[in-house]
Give the backbone structure.
Amino acid sequence: METIDRIPTSKIQRASKLITTGVKIGGNYLKYYGEKITNPETARDNLNTNNAEDIYDGLKNLKGSALKFAQMLSMEKNFLPQAYVEKFSLSQFSVPPLSAPLVIKTFRKYFGKSPLDMFDTFDANAINAASIGQVHKATADGKELAVKIQYPGVAESISSDLALVKPIAMSMFNIQAKDSDKYFKEVETKLFEETNYTLELAQSNEVARACAHIPNLVFPKYYAEYSCERVLTMDWMTGKHLSEWCKTNPSQESANKVAQALWDFYMFQVHQLKKVHADPHPGNFLVDAQENLIAIDFGCMKAIPDSFYHPYFELAEKENLDNPAVYKAKLIDLEILLDKDTPAETVYFSNLFYDVLSLLTQPFQSDTFDFSDETFFGKLAELGERYANDKELKKMNVNRGSKHFIYINRTFFGLFSLLHDLKATVRTGQNRHVNALI
C-alpha cells in the first residue's frame, strides 16, 4: 500500500500543492475544448473524470481540512457529477496512510514512548485512513483495540486550508463575499472540534450512554488511558463499512433493520438530545454479523439551538408549509427572508424554499417512507440542477439562511443518502422518536 512519509504543513507548501493541481485542471480544460469538437458526446464526462482525479490526487496528500472538503462534497450526490462523487468518496476511509516511522514519531511526541511500550501488540500499518486521521489495530489486556491517530499539522493548518478552498466553495455554492464570514467561521469551528480527540472521547461516551436503548445500535467502548488530544483508542469493532455491506445485496428485511436503527439514532439525537452526529457518511458506520449498526466517529457533533430547531422542524409539518402567514414567519426566523428584501425577492425565495421543503419533508409526512424511491431522489437531483443553473439566483448578492443550516442540512442530506444506498423502507412517523424511543 502507498504510504506517506511527510505531509505539507506550511501555508506555502500547501498552497503550492493546490497551485499544481490548478495547472493540471487548466490542462484538462484545454484538452476538453479540443475534444468537444471531435467527441462532443463524451467530452464533458471525460473532463469531469480527469478533474475529479486531479483534484483528489492533490488533496489526498494534503489531508486535513482540504481533504475533509472533498469528503463533505462526496455526500452531495444530487448536486455533483458522478465522477466527482465516486473519486471524492475515497476520502471517507481509503486514502494513503502515514508511514510506520511517522506513526511512531507521533506517539513519542504525545505519550513520550512508542506504541509498543503502551500496547501488548500494535500494527504500525494503518487499517484505514481518511481525511483527518488513520486507524491502527492494537491489543492490550486481552482486548482488541482500534487506535485512531491524527495526521501531523492538521489542526494547525485548518485556517489556512479554509482560506485556500474558500474561493472554490463560494463558486460551487454561490456564496457571496459580503456577510460570508459567519458560514466559514461555523465550518472552521467544527473542524477545530474534529481535531480535538479529547473532546471526541467525551462526546462519544455521552452519545453512547444516551442512545444505548435504541434497538440494533452498538457503540465501542473508549479508553481514556490510551488517548490524548491527537490519539483516540476504542474497542475494535468487527463489521463491514456501510457502503461495503450494501454491496453484499442484503435481504430487504436486513436492509430495513439497519436503516431503522440509523433513522431512530438520528431522530433521537435531533429531537431529544438537540445535538446530532453531523457527519453521516459510510465510513462512520459499520454493520456487524448480527446486522447491528455500529457508530464509530463522533468528532463532528452539532448542537441545535431552540431558535433554529423550532422553525426548522415546524416547517416539516405540511399545515405550516401551506399556511402563508406561518410559513413567512418561519422563513424570517431562519434568516431566509430578510427585512431589506424587495417584494420580488420575497416571492422568489418563498417559492424557492417551498419547492425545496415540500420535497425534503416528504419522509416526515407519512408513517413509512421508501428510500429506494428513485422518483424522489430524481426530483432532488432535478431541483439541485435547476437552482444551480438559475441565473436569477446567481444575481442575488445577499447570503441567506442561518449558519446552522450548514451542518443540519449536511446531516439530513447525508442521512437520506445512506438510506437510499440501503434501499430501505423506514418507519418515519414524526412521533416515533417520542413514543418508541424515550
Notes: The first helix runs from residue 11 to 38. The chain is about 55% helix and 10% strand.
